[in-house]
Specification:
This protein is an alpha/beta fold. The protein has eight helices and seven strands, in the order βαβαβααββαββααα. The chain has two domains: 113 residues, Resolvase, N-terminal catalytic domain (Rossmann fold); 64 residues, no CATH class. 51% of the residues lie in helices and 15% in strands.
Length: 223
């Protein structure tokens, strides 16, 4: 069996947590011996984040997978490959299309076995559920804050921060412009035409710049 290994660290400090390049390399080499695989290369990504797959070493790994030059990819731990559930799912599909197996030492995973595929699919599903649950809680919290008039992110056009710094209140000058925008919209004006009309009348944005249709659209959405 033809195998390649992949190791990654994002910072030198990770050596203190047992995930140095040397420690990972020793683990994947030992696993190759256990698997009886011919380890042709250990691909290294040093100082690269796992937030995306845009890494030099990852590009080489995928090129070898796509070319059919490898049967097994060995990693020390799943998070060395990626920390993104979406990216992991995409990698697994890509490996499967090329009949390439993934072996993770620390996670005791081997996608050549039914049990390994089951465990990995469960891990991916749980991670996806956790990510979506966090997103739902965040949206609910933001909705609650907005419902209570609390400041959330950028203050929308027509409002300003209240004296307590937590809530927002109407900004009279901007409210008059916002009311004009809504009147023009109700009259059937496009956002581009509204911007032209505001500029013709001498109105400016919060930054003192000319109105553009994108700013008009943002103001309408936030109103």
């Amino acid at each position: 069996m033809k195998a390649i290994a992949y190791v990654r660290v994002s910072t030198e400090k990770q050596a203190d947590f047992g995930v140095s390049l040397e420690a990972q390399t020793a683990k994947v080499q030992a696993m190759a011996v256990v698997q009886g695989a011919d380890l042709s290369e250990v691909i290294v990504d040093a100082g690269e984040s796992a937030k995306s797959l845009n890494r030099p070493g990852m590009a080489r790994l995928l090129a070898m997978v796509d070319s059919g030059a490898v049967n097994i990819v060995i990693i020390a731990k799943l998070d060395r490959l990626t920390r993104s559930v979406a990216d992991l799912a995409e990698l697994l599909k890509r490996f499967e299309r090329r009949n390439v197996s993934l072996v993770s030492v620390a996670d005791s995973l081997d996608t050549r076995t039914a049990a390994g595929r089951l465990v990995l699919n469960i891990m991916v599903s749980v991670s996806q559920w956790e990510r979506e649950a966090i997103g739902e809680r965040t949206r609910d919290a933001m909705h609650h804050k907005r419902a209570n008039g609390e400041r959330v992110g950028t203050i929308p056009f027509g409002y300003r921060a209240a004296a307590d710094g937590l809530h927002i209140e109407a900004e009279p000058a901007e409210q008059s412009i916002l009311a004009r925008i809504q009147e023009l919209r109700a009259a059937g004006y496009t956002t581009r035409r509204i911007a032209d009309e505001l500029n013709r009348q001498g109105f400016t944005t919060r930054r003192g710049t000319a109105w553009r249709f994108q700013y008009v659209a943002e103001s309408l959405r936030a109103a």
